[in-house]
Amino acid sequence: MPAIVTDQFRILNASNFVAGVSSTSNSFYVAVGLPNPAPASVGFGRANNWNTATPNPQDSFSEIAHIGDTTTFGKRVTEANVRRLARRIDWTKGVKYDMYRHDYSTSNEAPTTGATRLYGANYFVMNSQFNVYICIENGSSGINTTGNASEDEPTFTDLEPSKAGESQDGYVWKYLFTVNPSDIIKFDSTDFIALPNNWPTTTDAQIQAVRENGDSDINNNQIKTVYIADQGNNYTGTGGEFDILGDGTGVR
User: Fold this and answer.
1) Per-residue pLDDT for 96 more than 90?
2) What is the DSSP letter of 166?
3) 169, 173, 151, 150: which is closest to 160 by C-alpha?
4) What is this structure's pTM?
5) Domains in the chain: how many in total?
6) Whole domain around residue 68: which residue ranges?
7) Average pLDDT of span 55-80
8) How far from 83 is each of 58, 123, 156, 192, 235, CA to CA, in Å?
9) CB distance 71 to 32 below 8 Å
């Protein structure tokens, strides 16, 4: 019987781990050990080729006991030392990015990257100022399914989705957050972006403003963009902003 470990399950596991580390009831440590000297095979089996033929880690009760004999020092991991991470995708001029869509799957791959799940698609970027954005539009439509290359780096921090410049590349970006300077110092990586802690509950003014702007209960139900799969024929004009009349029923 086919089964899948969903992204939401992975996110829940990560959240539970962060909550566990943050709890005063638990204690997590990172330890450094195995100080046995080279080159001969001495002590607990350290060989002179250990650096080039490092043995696989083992998970057994004997290994757990062995840790106590070889640990040199340890550091407790606290809430200040743990962050959720997302893949780092730096905005680069001339690159096509996927737009955010809820329906990427094995039967509906992301047109640009071919990803079969949203979190595998390149639908978000970090700019040179450590601002993070989601791609709401990339110039794609039912005719141009892969979208355009991005020409304008998003730099704004306004709450509403906006285009980044005047190139008419078709991109609309939604600002999410700016990586905290202290997180840059601690967690900056060429592969990952450090995410804000406690997004749903934090009182950080920046995160709270973005969170509440997108909260339908606080800011009323909103339509930020519409994807036109089939534009039809014989329409005049090249697009723009249009009013949608109605509350979800009888929209016209």
Assistant:
1) yes
2) S
3) 173
4) 0.79
5) 2
6) 28-77
7) 83
8) 26, 21, 25, 11, 50
9) yes
